[in-house]
Design brief:
Strand order of the largest sheet: 1-4
Largest sheet: 2 strands, parallel
Oligomer: single chain
Number of helices: 10
CATH class of the largest domain: Mainly Alpha
CATH topology of the largest domain: Helicase, Ruva Protein, domain 3
Structural class: mainly alpha
Order of helices and strands: EHEEEHHHEHHEHHHH
Distance between the termini: 50 Å
Strand content: 5-15%
Helix content: 40-55%
Shape: flat
Amino acid sequence: MLESDRGTLLLDEVDTLSARAQVALLRVLQDQTFRALGSSREQRANVRFVAATNANLRQLVGEGKFRPDLFYRLCLFSIELPPLRERKGDVPDLAAHFLARHSGRSGGPKRLSNAALAALVQFDWPGNVRELENAIIRAVHTCQTDEIQGEDLQLCSAPATSPEAGEALPSFAVLKRRAIDAFERDYLIGLMQAHGGNVTHAACAAGKDRRDFRRLLERHGLDPVEFSPPGRRRRRDRGGDPPSNGS
């Protein structure tokens, strides 16, 4: 706490805190005061807390395993990060970042081959970003050339798909574009389903201009009418959105 005064303290895997530790943390969050171990003197620190977990805290609250008052204290701003398999457009940039970090330390390989990049993008990454970083570290230490090949990655399980023998592999840019397109389409479908096909509401939720959002839908071949709830009239209003209550 003292070292984090006027700074940020990360509480990783906050769901694993014991009941006693949860009570202590709640007191700290409420008044920013604490007592060091073995001391009877209260001290104050101005600290920003960031809590991280891969567990469902709401579910743990319902099961009586996590204090509801602590949950609501922590949940001022909540950011949900999807697993890496659901945002494969991030894989090329993350891989390049980890390669630059770890290759620079050891003077190892400087780039990924198209085959290696294809394997990374196609892999499902059950261990998320940590597993991706480990794969890059492993390849950096085992690769004998300046370019990492697919076999250097030694991925723990087979990727979902793999190129046939002799098949030409796409370039880095093509693979990255495909991953981004897949993410965009899945994101747009989820957004339109959540808003019942209403382009205006979906664009607002995405933080995009309505016309730009509609162009994105058209580029991915998505018709807003297809996302209208059953029973709603299948026609467009003057603005192009399916009619909805209050819109």
